[in-house]
Specification:
Elements: H1 3-51, E1 55-59, E2 63-69, E3 71-73, H2 78-81, H3 86-91, E4 101-109, E5 116-118, E6 123-127, E7 131-136, E8 141-146, E9 150-162, E10 165-178, E11 183-193
Parallel strand pairs: 3-11
Antiparallel strand pairs: 1-2, 2-10, 4-11, 5-6, 6-7, 7-8, 9-10
Amino acid sequence: MSRYDDIKNVLLVLFIPSSIIAGVMCRHMSARVGELESRLQQTSIELAHTRIPLQRDTIHDSIEVVTQTVVEVVPRKMKEALAGQEQTIRDLKLKVQQLEAAQTTKTETSDMVWAEYQPRDSCFSYSDQWADLSLRLKDTTFYYNIRDSLETYLYREYRHRFLWWRWGTKGYQVKIVNFNPHARVTYNKYIKADR
């Protein structure tokens, strides 16, 4: 064997294991980069959803409809997303791991009404489909009963469309229909576990 053959064999022995190690390392690093990109995208989506204002619309001339993007989180992040609601979940005898989705909606009811005055018992009262108000000056009692009605619809936004075919999931949206004309949805957060 010549010296050239010896060098060639040594290089071959070093090249094969090093190329295998390099290939494994590249594959591992590629998978890790993909995982980190996925986590970064998920985190940026979650942060973006927290800053998205409610989109308002009206149907039937007076019924308010509010649309907001759904916050999708991986199951292990559900506990962080529900921070501050742990006691309520425990009171319901549930565990965070059981939850598929959670929604928080806040409404505000305000209106100006003209009350009827009844001089006999010094009472001012107002009543409609959504509210009953009564003020008795004689015994200084104020009675009120406010009713509200909300309907929530969760729907998927398709990523791709071609003619009548739709496929893929871009994200989810929530539509809240508020039937009380005196009430206004001021805050909504819908969290969905992405399993």
